[in-house]
Design a protein that fits this description.
heterodimer, A: about 375 residues, mainly alpha, 3-stranded antiparallel beta sheet, 17 helices, 3 strands, about 5% strand, B: about 625 residues, alpha+beta, Ribosomal Protein L30, Chain: A, 3 domains, 7-stranded mixed beta sheet, 5-stranded antiparallel beta sheet, 21 strands, about 40% helix
Amino acid sequence: MMERRLWREASFDLTGKILRINWLYVLLLCALAGVGYTALFSAAGGAVEPYAGRHLVRFCIGLILMLGIALIDIRVIQRLSWVAYAGGIGLLVLVMRMGHVGKGAQRWIELGGLQLQPSELMKIALVLALASWFHKATWERIGNPLFLIPAIVAILVPVGLILKEPNLGTAAITGIVGSVVLFAAGVRWWKFALVMLPIPFAAKFVYEHLHDYQRARIDTFMHPENDPLGAGYNILQSKIALGSGGMWGKGFLQGTQGHLDFLPEKQTDFIYTMIGEEFGWVGAVAVLGLLAMIVLGGMLIALRCRNQFGRLVALGISFNFFMYVFVNIAMVMGAIPVGGVPLPMVSHGGSAMLTVMLGFGILMSVHVHRDTEFEGAQDDR
Amino acid sequence: MRRDTRRTGVFTRRALLVMGGQVAVLGGLAARLYQVQVVEGSHFETLANENRISARMIAPPRGRILDRFGVPVAGSRINWRALLISEQTTDVKATLDAFSRIVPLTDYERARIDREIHKHRHFIPVMVREFLSWQDMAAIEVNAPDLPGVLVDVGTTRIYPYSSHLSHIVGYVAPPNESDVANDPVLALPGLRIGRAGMEKYHDLALRGRPGAVQLEVNAVGRVIRELDRTEGIQGDEVGLTIDAGLQEMVVSRLGDESASAMVMDCRNGEVLAMATNPSFDPTVFNAGVSQAQWLEWTRDRRTPLINKATSGLYAPGSTFKMAVALAGLESKALSPNDRISCPGYLDLGDTRFHCWSKGGHGNLDLRGGLKNSCDVFFYEAARRTGIDKVAAMANRMGLGTELELDLPGQRIGLIPTREWRMAQGKAWNIGDTIVSGIGQGYIQVTPLQLATYCARIASGRMVQPHLTRSLGGVIQPGALPEDWPTVDLPDKFLHAVREGMWAVVNEAGGTAAGAKLPDPKIQLAGKTGSAQVRRVSRELRESGTFDSAKLPWEYRPHALFVCFAPYDAPRYAVSVVIEHGNAGAAAAAPLARDIMVDTLARDPANRTEPPGAKLAATTK
C-alpha cells in the first residue's frame, strides 16, 4: 500500500513516465508504418517518391506527437474532454460552412496546409467526452435513464452533423464507437436491445434519403456484376487483384493489377489489396495479424488501467482503430459498400495518420497513468 | 465500494466480450480472404490475365498471283509509312513543320492528322504519310532528332505489275466492309484487304493466309507495356494462272482502241492463255478507294471498261454459230456431209422471205461449201431440217449458252432458245425463229468465252472447260492434261467435216476469211467469221441496194466476230475475237484473230516451261 502511494506521488516524474510507456506497443506501430512504407513504395512503381518517403516523415512527426501526448497527465486530458468535444463540434459546423467539397460531400478544411477531417477528430473527442461523463458514475446512476440522456445526445449531435456532410460511413462508425463506449460503461443490455429494434426501419428511411452516389455505392455492392465498368469497377478490380494474388502472392513489385493501373486508388483506400496481390493470402493475413495485435493491445491497456476514465478512453480509441481496419479491409474484398475509409498508418494521407497517432498518444497516456487516481473519483479496487 | 467493484467487473466482462467480437470479426475477414485468394484464386487469376494481356492478330502477307511462267501479276510491295505518336513530342505543330521540310504535307493532310490526334489517345500512332519512297524514309530516319514522336513503319500494299492489261482476270482488293468483318473478325486487322473481283476474289481465302498473333501486356487505359509473345502469320498461297502475261500484253495491244475482247485458249485442256478485254481499268486504284469522278467516268463510258466482255459480254454469235447447226444436223442424220442444198439468195417460208447475205445466191453447195461461203440459206435449211431443240442441245454441248466451269466470278450464261423456253414465255415457237437461229441470230446470245470454248471443243474433240487456275500453292491442279477431259461424244467424221469447212474459210480462194491465211504454209489456220446485227435491217433498206452498215452510227453497227484454231492438222490453240460494232467479221475480226494466232504460235506458251526470251535474258546478264 505504501509503495503504491509512492508511485502515485511520483507520477509526475518524467523519467518514470517514459519508462512506463508501452514500448512494445510503439514497436508494433512502427512495424505497421513499415508495412505502409513497403506498400507505398510498391504503389509508386518501386520508388520512394511520391508516397513512401512522405509517409515515413509523417509517421515520425506522428510518433513525436504521440509520445508527447503520452506524457500529458490523464487528469489534464480528462479535464479538457468537454473542451475537445466542443472544439470538435465547432469544427464540424465550420466544415459545413466553408469545407471543401469532395465527391459531393463537405469533409475537410485546410488548416495551415494540412487537410483536416473534423469527423476523425470528433470520434476521439466523443470518446473522451463519454468517458468523462461515465468515469464518476456509480452502477446505480448508470441504470438511471435520465443520466443516460445527455450521453446519447452527445453521440447523436456529431453523428447528425457528420450525416449532414454527408458522410454516411463515418457517421455510422461514430455512432458505433459511441455505443460501444456506452456498452463498456455498463449501460444495461435491454436498453441496447430497445435501440437496436427500430434500426432496420431507420436504415430504410436513411436509404431513401441518401445521395445518389451513396445509393449507387450500396447498389453496386449488392450487385457488382451489373456494372463492371462503372461504379462496380473498383470492387471488381480489387477482388481480381486480391484473388489473383493467391496463397503466396505475385511477389514484391510484381502485382499486375496494381502496376498496370487496373486497381483504382491503390495508394489510399485500396492499399491493402495491393499487399494481398503482391504477398498473397499469407502476407495479407500477416498484416491482419499485426493490426489485430494493435487492436487487442489497446484493449489490454484498457483492462490494465485502474481508473474508469482511462479504461473507457482506451477501449473507445482501440475500438475506433478496429472499426477503421474492419471497414477498410471488408470494403476492399467487397464485403461492405465502398466508402473512402483508409487503412490507418498504411494508406497514403497525412491527416488520417496524424489523427490516428493522436489517438494512440491518448491511449499511451492512459497506459502511462494507468495507476493514477482521480480526485473525488471512486477507486474501483 | 462494493457497487463500484461491480462496475469494474461489468467493464472487464464487457471489454472481454468486445475483444472476443473483434477477434471473431478479424478471423472472419481472414477466412473471407482465404475464400477469395486461395479457393477462388485461379478464377481471379484468369480475370487478372484477361485484364492485362491483350492478344492482337497480325495481318498475314497476301499470297502472290503468278502467270503460267511464274511471273508475278499480283504481289505485295513494301509500304513505308511515317507515324506520329503525339505524346512523344512536346510540340506537335513544330514536329509536323519539321516533317514538312523533308516530305511536304498538304493543308488537307495536316487537317486530317490534327483530327486523328484529337480523336485517339495520345500514345496511339497516327499515320502521317504512307507510300514513302526509300529516300524519304532515309531522310526521316537521319533527321530523327528533329522529329520527336515520328516513327517509320513497314506495311504492305498490293501491286499489279500488269496493271490494266490483266485487271479483269486478276481483279483487285479493297478494304473489307462491315459485313465482311462481321463474318470474319480477322478482317478487322488494319491493312488487311479482301479480294473484290477476279482471281483475287475467287481465291481470296487461299490468298489471305493465316494471321499471326502477338500477346501484349497492356495497362488499364490500353497502353502497351511490353510484348509477351509473338507468332508470325503465314503468307497466303501462291496462285499460278494459266495466263501467259507476255501473250496477254500482246493481245491487248492488238486490240488497240476497239471496244473488243479476245481469248486465246489451249484447245486440248481448256487453259486460258490470254483473255483480253478493252478498254480496261487500273486495279491499284481500288486499294486506296475510288474517287467519285473516276467512278462516273467508268460507268458513263459506253465502251464499259468495268465489264469483262470476254465472260460477261453477250453477243449474237452470227455465222460463227453455223458449225453448231452443222454438227446438230449431222448427228441427227438430218444432214449428211455430202448433202447439197441450193441457194438462190433467199429462202421462202410461207409469205416470209429469208435472205442470204449474198444477194445473188451461192448456187448448189455441200456442207464444206456452205461453211466456206458462210451461206445463210444452207444453214436456214439445215436448221429447219434439224429442228431448234436439237440445234440448241448441240450448241449447249459445245459450250454455247451454258454455264462453263470457269474459275472467275461474274460469268454470264447467255441464251440458246428452245421451244420449252419460248413456251415458258407464254409464246409459241415459230418455224421462222428456227430459221434465224440457223445463222446465229434471233434470240441467241453467247459470250466470247463460250465461243472460244466451242471452237476448242470442235478442234480437239474434248469437252474442255475454260479455266484460269493452273496451280495452287505450287500444286498443279487437275485439268492441265488433255486426258483430264472426256472426249466429245461425236463421230470423228462429223467433226472432221466441220473442221474442213473452217479450213476452207481461211485457206481456199473465195473463203469468207481468205485474207486471214497464215504466212507460214506449214501451219494452217481454220476459222469462221460472224457478224451479229444489233438492229433489224428492214427489207426496203436491204433491197434498196444502198445499205452499208459502215455508215451507221457506231452503236448500231453489227458486231464483228471470228473464231479459229491452229495448227489445222494438230489443233493446239483456239482464238475468239469479238469487236463491238466492228461491222463484218471477215474484215475486222479475222485479221485481228490471225495476228493474235501468229503471236501465240510464235510464243507457243503451251509447250514451254519458261517465257520466251528468259534464257536470252539470263545469258546476257
